[in-house]
């Protein structure tokens, strides 16, 4: 059962507890350099594909950077030998790497053979010290936001991960008070940041998918410190005449749309469109400062949005 040579590593897992981990020796690497990890894998009666984890360490044997996972792109069942290849860049302070085989989910028999670590060229764009960082969950729609949210002359980095807003300083350190928790299913929109109250610091807005089935999406508004503004979050209006579905806020924009030099919060929602054409998407407008709202008459919203209403 070998790919080459006399031996291969055989790992079996039934339906009980996860297997013990199998670790490689520490392998010397160069910092800020491209490497390619390759190995051969075959399976028998597999229920799920396995993964191989890769860890980086400094010269002081302290882990640096996040765990990297090389997934095998094969189906379950029984398969012949497959080549798995994973390309990665070492951290600026990396000195060694270690490979780990671990089966927490997949059951079946797995053979691993011919591991190789090939050194490539120096990284064209080395990682900034302290990065990469790992968000609290999956990133659905959100893209990174870079802004000086606390008016200290240095930019911060924000991104939504699952139901949280993550925040780091320029060195990759988690910001005090972060991540910001919503408790909803996940953040469905891009984050929006702006100085809504004129104090020089930026507020953070996010739209979410309802925390429960048959529920309403919400809009959250935080101060730069991570404290929720009074009166927030707010649930969007929701048409349940024909059915009850999960509601979400897909867009949040902060802009001065009426020329009064105060920013308004615009939020586009899915309403109940998945079930009935009589429940079109809605656009909400909220005036700042304060929690006041004002309705838009049907047809007065931007093109493509059939109806616009204020938020209750």
Q: Which runs of at least 5 residues are low in confidence (pLDDT < 50)?
A: 289-312
Distance between the termini: 67 Å
Strand content: 35-45%
Number of helices: 0
Structural shape: flat
Radius of gyration: 25 Å
Helix content: under 10%
Structural class: mainly beta
- The number of strands is 21
Mean pLDDT: 83
- The run of helices and strands is EEEEEEEEEEEEEEEEEEEEE
**Largest sheet entry:** 5 strands, antiparallel
List the helices and strands and how they pair.
Elements: E1 9-13, E2 22-23, E3 27-28, E4 33-46, E5 51-57, E6 68-71, E7 77-89, E8 96-102, E9 108-122, E10 145-147, E11 156-161, E12 164-168, E13 180-181, E14 192-194, E15 203-207, E16 218-222, E17 234-235, E18 249-255, E19 264-269, E20 282-287, E21 307-308
Parallel strand pairs: 20-21
Antiparallel strand pairs: 1-9, 2-8, 3-8, 4-7, 4-9, 5-6, 5-8, 10-11, 11-12, 12-13, 14-15, 15-16, 16-17, 18-19, 19-20
What can you see in these coordinates?
With 312 residues, the chain is mainly β. It is 0% helix and 39% strand. It is built from no helices and 21 strands. The chain has strands spanning 9-13, 22-23, 27-28, 33-46, 51-57, 68-71, 77-89, 96-102, 108-122, 145-147, 156-161, 164-168, 180-181, 192-194, 203-207, 218-222, 234-235, 249-255, 264-269, 282-287, 307-308. Strands 2, 3, 5, 6 and 8 form a five-stranded antiparallel beta sheet that branches. The protein has a four-stranded antiparallel beta sheet with strand order 1-9-4-7, with no helix packed on it. Mean pLDDT is 83; it is low at 289-312.
Please describe the structure with a list of short key phrases separated by commas or semicolons.
about 300 residues; mainly beta; five-stranded antiparallel β-sheet; about 0% helix; flat
